[in-house]
Design a protein that fits this description.
The radius of gyration is 17 Å and the shape is elongated. Strand 1 and strand 2 form a beta hairpin. With 128 residues, the chain is of the alpha+beta class. 15% of the residues are buried. The strands form two sheets. It has a two-stranded antiparallel sheet. Strands 3-4 form a two-stranded antiparallel sheet. 40% of the residues lie in helices and 16% in strands. It has two domains: 63 residues, Arc Repressor Mutant, subunit A, CATH 1.10.10; 52 residues, no CATH class.
Length: 128
């Protein structure tokens, strides 16, 4: 009896494969599927689930594919500025403050690709 279901093993293998590409080099679902000897339709739901969980990010377009999403999560830390925004003024505190306020109100914050840009979704609990 396997310790992980087949889709779990595929998810781990896909994340490792994507991580080996390095930042800035997305890998297509077709390429990933070929490397693992699968039809793309079998791997695509696994990749989409990894995107929804915030482990991978999907990049659209002819040179698109999948990359690790960890870089996006770093913007929630204090004094962090991602490379693409270093030429803009700021101290890197904005989203860290927002995240702290959302946490104090028992809410959730998620970051999603807005192609182009970033979409920030904030969900706050109802007041008792």
């Amino acid at each position: 009896m396997p310790l992980l279901p087949r889709k779990g093993v595929l998810a781990v293998a896909a994340v490792i494969d994507v991580a080996m590409q390095g930042p800035g080099h997305p890998i297509s679902a077709k390429t990933l599927a070929a490397r693992h000897g699968l039809p793309p339709r079998h791997l695509e739901p696994v990749l989409q689930a990894l995107v929804r969980c915030g482990i991978l990010k999907g990049i659209r377009g002819p040179r698109g594919g999948y990359e690790l999403a960890h870089e996006r999560r770093r913007v929630m830390q204090r004094f962090v500025r991602l490379d693409a925004s270093r030429h803009n003024p700021g101290a890197g505190l904005g989203l860290a403050l927002v995240a702290a306020i959302v946490e104090l109100h028992s809410g959730q914050i998620s970051l999603e690709d807005n192609a182009p840009g970033l979409s920030v979704l904030i969900q706050l609990g109802l007041a008792a």
